[in-house]
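TEACHING EXERCISE
Course module: macromolecular assemblies
Task: Read the component lines below, then compare them to the predicted structure of the full complex.
Student: A.B.
Group: 4
Components provided:
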Amino acid sequence: MTDVTFAAVDKSRLAVASQWQLMWWAFRRHRLAMVGLWVVGFFYLIALIPGFFSSNDPSAQNARAAYHPPQRLHIIDEAADGSWKFNLHIRPYVLRRDPTTLAAIYVEDPNRKVDIQFFTRGYEWSFFGLFKSNLHLIGTGDARQPLFLLGADRLGRCVWSRIMQGTQISLSVGLVGVFLSLLLGVVLGGISGYFGGKIDFSIQRVIEFVLSLPTIPIWLAMAAALPQDWPATLNYFMITLILSLTGWAQLARVVRGRFLSLRTEEFVTAARLDGASEGRIIFRHMLPSFMSHIIASITLAIPAMILAETSLSFLGLGLQPPTISWGVLLREAQNIRSIATAPWLFAPGVAVVVAVIALNFLGDGLRDAADPYNK
Amino acid sequence: MLRFLVTRALWMVPSLFVISFLAFVLIQLPPGDYVTTYIATLAASNEVVDQNQAADLRQRFGLDQPMIVQYWKWITGILLYGDFGLSFEWQQPVSELIWERMALTLVLTFSTLLATWGIALPVGIYSAVRKYSIGDYVATFFSFLGLAIPSFLLALVLMYLAAVEWGQEVGGLFSEKYQTAPWSWGKVLDLLTHLWIPVIILAVSGTASLIRVMRANMLDELNRAYVTTARAKGLSEFRLLMKYPVRLALNPFISTIAWLLPNLVSGSIIVAIVLSLPTAGPLLLQSLMAQDMYLAGAFILLICALTLIGSLISDILLAIVDPRIRLE
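Instructor-supplied answer key:
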């Protein structure tokens, strides 16, 4: 099998390659996983600098743009004399009232046009308070002519910019939550698998118990216990903590299984005979040999966290506005009347689905590549 | 076998105790109690409740006692008299409010379980037997999509399509005519015509992961020597599949009931809230918000008990299918 998997790689390089190098070569062959890696990388880039990717201030309300539909992008700019050239622009919408129902309708104004500019100046955003910038990937360069790529919500806030901003919270909830679960999972699973016996038995019962709990009612009850008036950051950490309190059991199981199978390996016995301490055996000899599996399990646990946060926030028990996450944004789409008027409010849901699929592909690829020696 | 069953069932008793205590602590966690919420609602409509009245109310509901005493009263009431306490908000015994909703939750969960298996089994087998065919790619594509779409989003999209495209309201489990009517054949039929929408929504994510599991299991089995032997002996392809590899591949399938059930119950809560189904979900959310603690506690306790029973059933089925497990 090895020959087939690494056909592209020179034999002599294969023999001396490190484990991580072998993993990378195996991973690269998994095409969907590579796509997943790019998409996930792009999403985390957005999460790092959401301000750059937004075109309007995500919290700015605009009474004259309530439920503004997504603007149509025009590519071809036709002049009066019939000549044309490529020029990306929009035609601003004007607000009309339906004469009978008095409902608001937005109509494209055919006489005006606003050019779309890349790397333009706009509202000022800050990078974690370290520096400030007003550079944006895409915009109109004119605050009076906002660009609504994905329309606007009930209060006239730009849905596109809000999704960009929400990426930061939604994706980091996954990372922080998984990190906390990992901490619990590795410590408890490791103890359980390494020492065995009575300790293993009791930790196993706890894990089984946690796994048999239906997560949502427990989350709901815990999230309902959080005071509504807590500061946003504290609320955020409590929510991730709640999510990881049930998430660690799965990881602990994986870690325990690995420890059990490694405990009797020769290299562990050799290390013990050499007089290495327990800590050294665990962290220096055993942990590296199943690190790759843990990484794959983590990648597959992140999407579950993201979905959980989205669901909780959607129900109004997770993060609270003005914090922006994909789940908070989807609350806008909660009732049938608002989605019937403004179906573009589903857009944050699309972001969730794409991110989760990409993370699943990435995790699948990592899992397949995790054990390059066994193939 | 009997010994296995008895030890396994006995393990449930301490688990249930821990769960009941956990449920009680959880619903006690929010600052304040029902009386605080009650006063807040009254204050919102400009009524004033003085401190004496509040103290009276607390005493009447037993909220002034230490938590462990309240828990003791609660749990002994349930165990000895089947009395789940009084719902503050509804001013009715909890048991009158929950049983019909729990029964409907159970109906919904089991229909979903059946639908999940009904779809995932054949599709998973097909995907494995016709590996890398168009059908396999389609199944793989949909199973990845199914894993990624949160069920409430699917419910919302379906509601949107039904309202905008077909001009129909989706939601609830009964037509208006039967909503408060007593149970009859007509009501059961009415339930069946409404049930399939939430069932499909809920089945999607479970089906998606089970297709992957079934496909992987089948692929492991299909290359075994016994399959070649059976084929060489002239067994028809269908009988061969059903008789050997499918039976073996089913083994891990049964063990997934243990986690499928909690997942289904959890998922059904959110979907039920979106589609406003008369199941446990919406009332649980409402009671948690209002700190109606006995009602919320009863729901959490029963839902947890349901999932524990689910994992017990799964263990028993596994022991029947795989004798090795019994002997361990």
